[in-house]
Amino acid sequence: MRLCGFLRGTLVRGVVLACLALALGMPAVQAQQVTGVPGSPDATTTIDGHVLPPPPQPFTGQIGLNADQSRPAWPMRVVPPKGAPNILLIMTDDVGFAAPSTFGGVIPTPALDRIARDGLRYTNFHSTALCSPTRAALITGRNHHSVGFGVVSEQSTGFPGYNSIIPKDSATIGRILRDNGYRTSWFGKDHNTPTYQASQAGPFDQWPRGMGFDYFFGFVGGDTSQWQPNLFRNTTPIYPYVGHPQWNLTTAMADDAVHWLHQLNDIDPRIPFFLYYVPGGTHAPHHPTPEWISRISDLHLFDKGWNELRTQIFANQKRLGVIPADAKLTPWPHDLLKNWDELTGVEKKLFIRQANVYAAYLAYTDHEIGRVIQAVQDMGKLDNTLIIYISGDNGASAEGTPNGTPDELLTFNGVALTAEQQMAWYDVWGSDQTYPHMAVGWAWAFDTPFKWTKQVPSFFGGVRQGVAISWPARITDKGGIRPQFHHVIDIVPTILEATGIAAPNTVDGITQKPIEGVSMVYSFGNASAPSPHRTQYFEMMGVQGLYDNGWMLSAVPTRAPWDAGLGNVVLDPASGFKFELYDLRHDWTQYTDVAAQNPRRMREMTDLMFGEFAKYQVLPLDASAVTRMVTPRPSLSAGRTEFTYAGVPVAGIPTGAAPNLLATSYTITASIDVPEGGAEGMVVTDGGRFGGYALYLLHGKPVFTWNLLNLQRVRWEGAEALAPGKHTLEYDFHYDGLGFATLAYNNASGLGRSGTGTFKVDGTTVSTQTLEQTIPIMLPIDETFDIGLDTGTPVDDRDYQVPFRFTGKIDKLTIQLERPKLTPADVRKLEAAYRAGQDAN
């Protein structure tokens, strides 16, 4: 009787909650569903989902003095509502609206085509304009500032909207589905773990496993080499991929995802899955296999250049119906970029190579996504699988500079190479000898018909993403097009409505923020239904915008996305932008600015935008860019000036937990023991092929090398091999600048300030050299700090190959920092530079 009363009460509460949800206009949560005999080993139940994890189920058996007088009862296994679909959520990286064939592009994307053919194409869907902000919004259903991701984690600052910490009051879709009976996984890019929590010391609550995902296979950070990735399984690093020259993460990730699906299906095909699949493609580095480069190059897609490409794509888009018939192609930005016919022969040759490698990377990535989709079909589960395929987390990336670059780290450190200089890498473009990015002209073309690119939130070139959604059991308008306005925060509520699962009120006892997006399920069967998403703010690095019921308020960027922002950045983002106004009901592409004709609407939109900023933690506005990367953060190395290591081999310590030797004086001291017969190998290193330093023994001789962004390598070397026994190696560097404080004001040369390095062996100076320039901002984000071996790539390929384990013994390693101290004269100098910058602007 007690059991029956419990069930009756639960069912009644479920019906009441469902009715209340309907009355409030929210998706109805199904009443509790029980299968099997309650208390039996095979019994299952759904939960109302408002409290996660669900409270313990009451024991429904009987307990006597002994087992013979008692009746056992098992807790019922929690399952999703009957008929809830499997979920495959896919998002590629840095793909502009016009790149894939599905939305008019020339790059073949048959997997995306397949989902669009079997389901729907959404042509008015938006991102945040940057990587990890979009991803945080995607997995939480809240705006990116609401969950701490106003910018990427590498640029985080100590304000609630920018600290790169997803708060406990905003549980992810992974956590919600997992607690409701799904098995959850995350493959690929994790750009939502704070850089200062990405080491083996944790904490791990902001890693995928801590955010509700049962299994993670991928990389932590903004990007990684697809040939030598900084790769993890759950929280365990996987090193290294030596001796497998054909291995590529793009394929390995699909292999692992297919294995996970089949393993789960073999264990119990009834268990529903949520698979979050976010490959590195096509963020730089563009690393497809040689076969894909050859395949795409043979198509000659880009031989006529970017201007002709835009015209071709624009015609394709109208033919496919993914833009309106009366849409206008926005003009080419002649003040920023050259026409194709203005380029030299060398530039054209290089840029075509860049585009072919990029296109190969996108086609390759889509092909591997197709293998995952095919695995779902092979298991017989495609009919009841909701597949959401988002093409890009922001617009096409213009971070490669107008000439492209063989190494994106050059751009982030303010260095640009001419086409002629880059031809040295032409034949190896896309291989592990490069970390390449394409010229801006291609990015602008891949955002056709819109203006601007990634990083720019106020124009659709930065935020308009093509999306395809299929669910054969539910979506019958196969091949349909949906033009309703939507945003990345709408994906979580869409999944919740599709599964019949409630957004929780509390998780782990913490009251949850309301979901800020709206469900898109209403549109599955209705192409003309109005969108309930009527207002949406946009902001990225100070640039602002607001969509409201068919109107768009757009700040005009003052800094191009390919400008690293190392010059005088003194713009007040709250008042320094020029704003334009677009009537999107009649102007799909933001072609005609109607601000002058609508002053009242301008005022209303501006007031509403700042109201949204206050509501969603957007303030304070900050227009700085790359220089924000040197903002002090609460890392494990913050505030420390001395680091001591016991000498035990340690690999994979990320930047946030390692000593930062940029823009400072420092001393590295290693006490080592050389065995009989001599020793060689790595003592300590940070970085790799595209920038970094290393202290090692080479054929017994002590060597210290600085790799200056793969443009120059400077070596300090002892003349003699070290004899067996104890030795002390010391590298002392005296920096000539005032530290990071000077970067925003006086860095026109591209690299950091000079300094002098002195290398000593057992107290005797063996080499002294001056570096005329040093690396100012950052080392490669996918390389790590290692002791006793080297992971990733070597600082100097000519000297050694990884892992280059040290064959002696390291007794002790210390690194002492002596950061520049600003004198009153230094402060006055910086203040004068700041005032000069204000006057110039």
Automatic annotation (TrEMBL):
Coiled coil: none annotated. Residues 1-31 form the signal peptide. Residues 85-501 form the Sulfatase N-terminal domain. Keywords: Calcium, Hydrolase, Metal-binding, Signal. The keyword Secreted does not apply. InterPro entries: Alkaline_phosphatase_core_sf, Sulfatase, Sulfatase_CS, Sulfatase_N. The keyword Glycoprotein does not apply. Pfam families: Sulfatase. One of its GO terms (molecular function) is metal ion binding. Belongs to the sulfatase family. This is Arylsulfatase.
